[in-house]
Design goal:
By secondary structure, the chain is of the alpha/beta class. The chain has 14 helices and 31 strands. The strands form seven sheets. Strands 10, 11, 12, 13, 14, 15 and 26 form a seven-stranded mixed sheet that branches. Strands 7-2-4-5-9 form a five-stranded antiparallel sheet, with no helix packed on it. A hairpin with a 2-residue loop joins strand 13 and strand 14. Helix 4 runs parallel beside helix 7.
Length: about 625
């Protein structure tokens, strides 16, 4: 039988609204309770659930249409077994008191001008294909009781609950507040997250100090001789001051934007409620939307769990009061190489153990070779094709046993072992199961092009949402998620997402490498400029590096670049902009660059791809 689904009562006195999303199309099978559409009124977003099992035969109202209570929105073909829905009671004699609710209301506030906080996504009809399969409220985990009670400073409800105040979370909170939403940001450790407190900022501060020490003692050939004393404890204090200044700045920015800051641990209880544990007690908070930004943590190698003395993680290494005389570094990825080089410059004898056959296995041989050879010059010793198998305390230090693929073992003695085997998403801290969210095969939260999870009102940004684990990617995703919640058109585009490694020399990439471009169906052309031919590189004694620019042969559109050079992390922005605006090689090659600068190498590489280079053969 044909079932006509009429728009039910919308509540709050509303008699009509705008159809802002339709989640089904003709031919789709639905079961009672499935989310089928969303209607926005001046008070709320109303989620319409299928009142019957059946097959969609007709979508009567289109997204953007104004619909009134009683208007037919959808038609279903059913077997009649459960067709006693709200619009069929005249035919079936169903008791109105027994009807299954067909709507879920997401109230905003009593301000009729608050439509920006409804979260309706006007781009749903034309936007990117979702990367996740939506589930309805009825399919989420069983509702649990939130502990009773309130705590000063913790609101009882909020438009947007952001869990985690790292680069993704605090940026999302500020942007959402700027867009008129009531935002609560909960952080259990420190504002700024790993990047600011234990990662990119303090490590770059340490690297800077190590660079100053190395340069001061290695310029005899320039006629400059110096004897220095490195007080690592004071260097650490200075680094901590930088971190404190930035964390304080984040808190000030959040408060200035109107974000409510809560020091506590938030865990989800059900679809629209969370439990917040604070030093002052436990509290309950309800929310319309949530943004999960719980970040990542170091991967622990079994048997090499950090103890802060013998076995260190990257956070421990950044808190040392003295540079160790000898250090075994387990892992030669980007964190391992950054810290290995820094400690070598501070006078530490560093031995790096890596299972792969070269440093930075995520990069090609030409890139890895430059960084490895430079690290060897600084005194880093490498043991490739070996894994850290065991360790034991020995003579106020450690004895680390490594093993190669043939089972042969080697013993390495050091003051400590620094284990940097990568990072993993911290997805087990907020009880995502209560929201019905499952992880993908790699342990990340699946999201679509706006950061939405399988729950339409829950978003995930940053490290929990997938590779690459980059602070600026997290911030970008946070802004997109906030805009989507506020009903603004927004979508993620990772094509122009740069990445950098702060080794010596630095590495920076954006877009596609040659092989990736070929795999994507392009006919790639590559231009290259070695730093040996760059005047500025010669004057700063940094000729070990290059710039590669990749473009499409047919259109000369720039597809990507790889830079190995001092300040590569700064230089890559030019190519990222070229990708963002769809520039071609002639644009890069024809833009006048200041002389003498390292940035001229980008211009020359683009010209080389067109066989027009002046300063390279």
């Amino acid at each position: 039988m044909t079932y006509e689904f009429e728009l039910p009562e919308l509540g709050n006195g509303a008699t009509d609204g705008t159809l802002v999303a339709c989640h089904v199309e003709p031919g789709d099978d639905v079961v009672e309770g499935d989310l089928v559409a969303e209607v926005e009124t001046d008070k709320s977003v109303v989620e319409l659930s299928a009142p019957v099992d059946g097959t969609v035969t007709d979508v009567v109202a289109a997204v953007g249409d104004t619909v009134s209570v009683g208007d037919v929105v959808l038609r279903f073909e059913t077997d009649g077994a459960n067709a006693d829905g709200a619009t069929a009671d005249a035919d079936t004699g169903a008791d109105a008191d027994d009807l299954t609710p067909a709507v879920t209301r997401l109230e905003t506030d009593d301000d009729p001008d608050a439509d920006e906080s409804t979260g309706a996504d006007e781009s749903d009809a034309d936007g990117p294909t979702p990367a996740v399969t939506r589930i309805d409220d009825a399919e989420s985990a069983d509702t649990a009781d939130v502990p009773a009670g309130t705590v000063d400073g913790v609101p009882e409800s909020t438009d947007v609950l952001v869990v985690g105040a790292g680069p993704g979370g605090y940026v999302a909170a500020i942007r959402a507040a700027q867009l008129g939403l009531e935002v609560t940001l909960v952080e259990k450790d420190a504002y700024g997250g790993t990047c600011l407190n234990d990662g990119c900022i303090p490590s770059k501060a340490l690297i800077h100090g190590a660079d100053v020490a190395h340069e001061a003692t290695s310029a005899e050939h320039l006629g400059i001789t110096a004897e220095i004393d490195v007080d690592v404890d004071r260097l650490t204090d200075w680094k901590d001051g930088v971190v404190d200044r930035l964390t304080g700045g984040i808190e000030s920015l959040c408060r200035a934007a109107g974000v409510t800051l809560v020091d506590g641990h938030a865990t989800f209880v059900d679809d629209h409620r969370a439990h917040v544990a604070t030093d002052d007690g436990d509290a309950a908070i309800s929310f319309e939307y949530a943004i999960v930004a719980t970040g990542s943590r170091p991967i622990e190698i079994p048997g090499f769990e950090p103890d802060g003395e013998h076995i260190l993680d990257s956070s421990d290494a950044l808190e040392l009061s003295d540079a160790p005389d000898r250090l075994v570094v387990v892992g030669a990825g980007y964190i391992g190489m950054e810290l290995s080089t820094a400690f070598a410059k501070l006078g530490t004898d560093v031995t790096a153990v890596e299972m792969f056959d070269d440093v930075l296995p995520m990069y090609d041989d030409e890139i890895s070779r430059v960084v490895r050879e430079q690290a060897v010059e600084y005194g880093v010793e490498f043991r490739f094709g070996e894994r850290a198998a065991d360790w034991e305390p020995a003579d106020d230090g450690v004895l680390v046993t490594t093993e190669d693929e043939d089972g042969a073992t080697t013993e390495l003695t050091a003051d400590a072992a620094l284990v940097v085997a990568g990072r993993e998403p911290a997805t087990d801290t907020a009880n995502l199961e209560a929201l019905g969210i499952e992880l993908d095969d790699d342990g990340f939260v699946p999201t679509d092009a706006q950061g939405r999870t399988v729950r339409d009102h829950v978003f995930a940004v940053g490290d929990v949402a997938g590779e690459p684990m980059l602070a600026h990617k997290a911030s970008y995703e946070g802004e997109v998620a906030a805009a989507a919640i506020a009903g603004q058109p927004a979508a993620l585009d990772h094509e122009a997402m740069p990445a950098a490694v702060f080794t010596d020399p630095e590495i920076a990439t954006v877009g596609l490498a040659r092989d990736e471009a070929a795999d994507a169906g392009y006919d790639p052309i590559v231009g290259r400029m070695p730093l040996q031919a760059n005047g500025r590189a010669l004057t700063v004694e940094a000729t070990d590096g290059f710039v590669r620019v990749v473009a499409d042969a047919a259109t000369e559109r720039v597809l990507g670049a790889q830079i190995v050079a001092p300040n590569a992390s700064e230089l890559i922005g030019e190519v990222a902009l070229a990708l963002e605006v769809g520039a071609d090689l002639s644009t890069l090659a024809g833009t006048v660059h200041t002389h003498p600068t390292l940035s001229e190498a980008i211009m020359e590489a683009a010209a080389d791809a067109r066989d027009e280079a002046i300063h390279t053969r």
